[in-house]
Write a structure and sequence with these properties.
With 316 residues, this protein is an all-alpha fold. The protein has 20 helices and no strands.
């Protein structure tokens, strides 16, 4: 369930005027920006962008980029984008890093529904004038390239049907691969990149029932933490099997210890606020015995803090 608190009715024209006023003259009224954009759905935000463009012949996104700064600016920028376009930006940033962040690519490919992933691929082509698949291929090598290109290219079946016999046979294939450390076996890649999520979850459950341990734990055995391909497989399996637990861990790692991984924290809150962030909050509390709002409030500050807490559903 979503944490976003948005009005059923609103005037996108009045919102556009209020945002123009917030950005006019010396200084910016960040509280006004948060109170408006932090309480609008994706569809409402796009209406506001269009109204702003029509009223002032100016792109609201570019205006906010010039008015805001730091982690707050980045969070607002990613929030105001249309969801598929936002994921295209996240994917491109992850790919173009000096050390590509393939976990973000896997996250986008494995958490989304087939139609959502297709929308991201289309948005990527529109924005960057090349396909997500070719960009991923250009910035990866070897078995990791095979896995990632297959994951972002697939259009999985999205139905609930499962084949128990197939789950058993493919659980056996996965066991052989983990036992022999043959993680890059093409059968492993085939299973993870072509089966429906329902069928994969049945296979993972059969693996756990027959072996007494999860496949992700098997992939961690015998020092495989340093195996990049095994780590990619674990990320894909966790995203498919239980994305809420996956996102909880991303947030937990982002705010534990010294410093904050603002990119990771922003990514999860901004992308999940209209989807399942309420469930992620519950998982976080169960795991850490502290609310996510308390953790974010302690680890962030200023307008960035206020914006994230607004998306988390905290009352103004």
């Amino acid at each position: 369930m979503a944490t976003l608190v948005a009005p059923v009715k609103h005037s996108h024209i009045e919102d556009a005027k209020a945002l123009y006023k917030a950005c006019k003259g010396w200084g910016t009224d960040e509280k006004a920006v948060i109170s408006i954009l932090g309480h609008r759905t994706a569809a409402q935000r796009q209406q506001i962008r269009l109204a702003y463009q029509n009223l002032y012949q100016e792109d609201l996104v570019k205006r906010l980029e010039s008015e805001l700064s730091g982690a707050f600016e980045k969070a607002v920028y990613r929030w105001i984008l249309e969801p598929a376009d936002r994921d295209a930006v996240l994917a491109n940033v992850a790919i173009k890093k000096a050390c590509p962040d393939y976990h973000v690519i896997i996250e986008i490919a494995c958490v989304h529904s087939p139609e959502e992933l297709l929308a991201v691929r289309r948005a990527y082509q529109l924005r960057y004038k090349l396909s997500l698949e070719e960009d991923v291929a250009a910035h990866t090598t070897g078995d990791l390239r095979k896995l990632l290109v297959a994951l972002v290219s697939v259009l999985r079946y999205d139905g609930p049907e499962i084949n128990a016999r197939l789950a058993k046979s493919e659980a056996d294939i996965l066991e052989d691969a983990t036992k022999n450390k043959a993680f890059n076996h093409e059968e492993v890649i085939r299973i993870l990149t072509t089966r429906s999520k329902a069928q994969l979850m049945a296979t993972f459950n059969r693996y756990r029932d027959d072996r007494g341990t999860s496949i992700t734990k098997s992939l961690l055995s015998e020092g495989d933490q340093v195996n990049e391909f095994a780590a990619a497989l674990r990320t894909a399996i966790r995203c498919i099997n239980n994305s809420n637990k996956y996102f909880e861990k991303i947030i937990r790692n982002a705010i534990k210890g010294a410093g904050t991984d603002e990119d990771a924290l922003t990514r999860v809150i901004v992308t999940r606020a209209e989807k399942d962030l309420k469930v992620i909050k519950e998982v976080y509390y169960k795991r850490n015995s502290v609310t996510l709002e308390q953790a974010v409030a302690k680890d962030t500050s200023g307008d960035y803090n206020a914006f994230l807490l607004t998306l988390l559903g905290k009352a103004d």
